[in-house]
TrEMBL record:
Homodimer. One of its GO terms (molecular function) is UDP-glucose 4-epimerase activity. Its cofactor is NAD(+). The keyword Ligase does not apply. Pathway: Carbohydrate metabolism; galactose metabolism. This is UDP-glucose 4-epimerase. Belongs to the NAD(P)-dependent epimerase/dehydratase family. It catalyses: UDP-alpha-D-glucose = UDP-alpha-D-galactose.
């Protein structure tokens, strides 16, 4: 069993990953500055697992805090979730994104090097793929210039980490390219808790369902897709969390830097999401068609064969689970962790 430092472990994907790590017998240290999360998420991790998390409230840009963590704990590997992720905000305040996501990642790997810890799993995104690629997207397809600064930071960090591993063979780095994480823990105790108006589809849908928003705007109904609305590869957050454990196992016995897609391989349209949510949960989602959103592509879904073959990972949950679990979380926690 390993001791794992989880940066951003109080966040949406990080907190679900902490549960899976603890349930698998690993020890967990979380570093999070709580800029987009609540300590309550970690209380719930502990409730669900009946195990304790070592929590350090601090910033990945703070090298003193990082060095202290590596001195106080015998860390075997790091899972690096900490980062800012609001696409619109990244267009308005790019420097904040460059500092937090790019400089923050550099600060982290510098501290890892000082501490002789060379196993890293990094949260990347399908947004790094060139938009000209035709789905299903596989890892050998070219990356391209993402349509926003958030995506750009993911591409830059991927490239930095690749070059680092090329230059120094002690490094073993997994780049996990997430498709569209949705869903929540089955218990309804943990889930996605965005601040302000949600940018992403699923939290918007659940906030309409719970009465916090009036209606869903569907961005574009004239794409070249099954019903004209955008197609994405939605992946249950618990399946995604488990991909990190698989990547960790893989990296503890390997060298170099390698990318894996984490998606189900199934494309699903916005209308399918809305209709399936209504059917599974018995709630109507009022909606309107609105113009296309800038930067959106028509279709994006994964070829996940590499993760299945090399990591021994599979997605266990289907769309109905994702939508039922998202709703179960939102219904039990109408105001997220702020109740
Ligand atoms: P999240 O905002 O819920 O979690 C990120 C966590 O990092 C938060 O708890 C936040 O407080 C913390 N954090 C941010 N900056 C920090 C800093 N400088 N120092 C310490 N802590 C810091 O987001 P999430 O959805 O859980 O995403 C986790 C990672 O996965 C992010 O890197 C994100 O970019 C990436 N990702 C997310 C998605 C998605 O759709 N959710 C898709 C692809 C990639
Ligand atoms: C978006 C980001 C991407 C980021 C990812 C995870 C953009 C252009 N892309 O991806 O960089 O990695 O989130 O954070 O922002 N939709 C609606 N109405 C809504 C919200 C979304 O119709 O209110 C549609 C979108 O047009 C899209 C689909 O739902 O077709 C999914 O959208 P979203 O959840 O924002 O994810 P992505 O666009 O795939």
């Amino acid at each position: 069993m390993s001791k794992v430092l989880v940066t951003g472990g109080a966040g949406y994907i990080g907190s679900h990953t902490c549960v899976e790590l603890l349930n698998a017998g690993h020890d967990v240290v979380v570093l999070d500055n709580l800029s987009n999360s609540s300590k309550e998420a970690l209380n719930r991790v502990q409730t669900l697992t009946a195990k304790s998390v070592d929590f350090v409230e601090g910033d990945i840009l703070d090298e003193v805090v990082l060095d202290q963590i590596f001195q106080n704990h015998q860390i075997d590997a790091v899972i690096h979730f900490a980062g800012l992720k609001a696409v619109g905000e990244s267009q308005k305040i790019p420097l904040k994104y460059f500092e937090n996501n790019i400089s923050g990642s550099i600060s982290l790997v510098q501290a890892m090097e000082r501490a002789n810890v060379f196993n890293l799993v990094f949260s990347s995104s399908a947004t790094v793929y060139d938009e000209a690629n035709i789905s299903p997207l596989n890892e050998d397809m070219p990356t391209g210039m993402p349509s926003n600064n958030y995506g750009y930071t993911k591409l830059i960090v991927e490239q930095l980490l690749e070059k680092l591993a090329q230059a120094d063979e002690r490094w073993s780095i997994a780049l996990l390219r997430y498709f569209n994480p949705v869903g929540a823990h089955k218990s309804g105790l943990m889930g996605e808790d965005p601040q302000g108006i949600p940018n992403n589809l699923m939290p918007y849908v659940t906030q309409v369902a719970v009465g916090r928003r009036e209606k869903l705007s569907i961005f574009g109904n004239d794409y070249d897709t099954v019903d004209g609305t955008g197609v994405r590869d939605y992946i249950h957050v618990v399946d995604l969390a488990n991909a990190h454990l698989c990547a960790l196992n893989n990296r503890l016995n390997a060298q170099g830097c390698r990318a894996w897609n984490i998606g189900t391989g199934n494309g699903c349209s916005v209308l399918e999401i809305k209709n399936t949510f209504e059917r599974v949960n018995g709630i109507e989602i009022p909606f309107e068609f609105a113009p296309r959103r800038e930067g959106d592509v028509a279709t994006s879904f994964a070829n996940n064969a590499r993760a299945v073959q090399e990591l021994g990972w599979t997605a266990k949950f289907g769309l109905e689970d994702m939508l039922a679990d998202s709703w179960n979380w939102q219904k039990q926690n109408p105001n997220g962790y702020r109740d």
